[in-house]
């Protein structure tokens, strides 16, 4: 048993010694390899100048282009309402929405008309009185002339002592009576123009009162000022409407408006830059719109596979910038937002709908458009004709989505390296592989066709 234990220890030792001797006998000298430069395979595109359309994607809420509030200008009970006077219904321009009871205003108008008729009668009466007074004055003037001649004759007789004093005094009293009558008639005739002016003033005041009452009657009928959709209804049939109460609110359906906020940098990217023309003086909105040249697409972001969009136009710029965010608000207008509705597929563009707005500027020619990932802190990688790496500084005009627009630092026909090299060493050997599909995608992105 002891001999077996010793064998179990000795045999492995002997085997190990034999294996060591064999390995040492068969050992080969190390092989020396030549030092070769590493070649990095990279994807490249051939640079070419192309036109680029600057664009910005932003978001906003839809608003109505015009809103209208039907505020009651008179008080009274509602005696008629439109059958569709309910929130959400469409109303045509000129349709009567509701009527207020006109009895009290109609009675006031009738009283005003009666007062006018009374004034007209008094004016006619005054005119007839003027004619009568004029005729009487003519007669009395003749009588006064005759009385004056008779008084002169009797004075001559009195001077020759053919007439007594009492008869002369009687004739003088008769002459004075005729003169007093003429004076009274003349005074009455002189007062008629001023009396007529008073009556004409009363008539004008009465006409104003009647017109005011007629306006009150007209105000009892409220009509839609344009094609609209009702958004708020605060009144029902037989309710009392107090003056100054908002009865109905409505929104126009011919246009919708989307205010969107843009950072000044993004807004300047959309402008034509050196290709634009100077605008002298204070421009009107249309001149500004044409000078800016922004177009827009309004999209409903509900499903990537279904495209729901509307053509929009740049309308105007807000008069000031937001104090909190420093953003500029611009307004995009969409015509006929309720057209081409397809139930379940294409909804109308309604108020407070959250939409995506793609803004595009004018086309900028002769630009290099590269993937944004190909620009490394203001530098790009160029594959030289000798298939070595050149690290070159470039001027980035602006970044847009996944692409960068370069204006300086590159030449047409050069090979731009798209692969991100780690580490990137100037002069390292490259194995370029053309990425033609990437170039075609860049062209589409430059023109906004890949959106």
Primary descriptors:
451 residues; alpha+beta; conserved putative lor/sdh protein from methanococcus maripaludis s2 fold; Elongation Factor Tu (Ef-tu), domain 3; OB fold (Dihydrolipoamide Acetyltransferase, E2P); 6 helices; 36% helix
Explain what the structure shows.
This protein has 451 residues and is α+β, with helices and mostly antiparallel strands. The protein has 4 domains: 43-50 and 366-447, conserved putative lor/sdh protein from methanococcus maripaludis s2 fold (Beta Barrel), CATH 2.40.420; 54-62 and 254-277 and 284-364, Beta Barrel (Elongation Factor Tu (Ef-tu), domain 3), CATH 2.40.30.170; 68-101 and 225-252, RNA polymerase II/Efflux pump adaptor protein, barrel-sandwich hybrid domain (OB fold (Dihydrolipoamide Acetyltransferase, E2P)), CATH 2.40.50; 104-219, Orthogonal Bundle (Helix Hairpins). Helices cover 36% and strands 31% of the residues. It contains 6 helices and 22 strands. The protein has helices at residues 2-25, 103-159, 165-219, 264-270, 285-292, 436-447; strands at 39-46, 50-61, 63-64, 67-71, 76-81, 90-91, 96-100, 221-223, 228-233, 240-241, 246-252, 255-262, 295-299, 309-321, 328-335, 354-371, 379-383, 389-393, 395-400, 403-408, 415-417, 429-434. Strands 2, 3, 12, 13, 14, 15, 16, 19 and 20 form a 9-stranded antiparallel sheet that branches. Helix 2 (103-159) packs antiparallel against helix 3 (165-219). It is elongated and about 205 Å long. The model has no long low-confidence stretch (mean pLDDT 82).
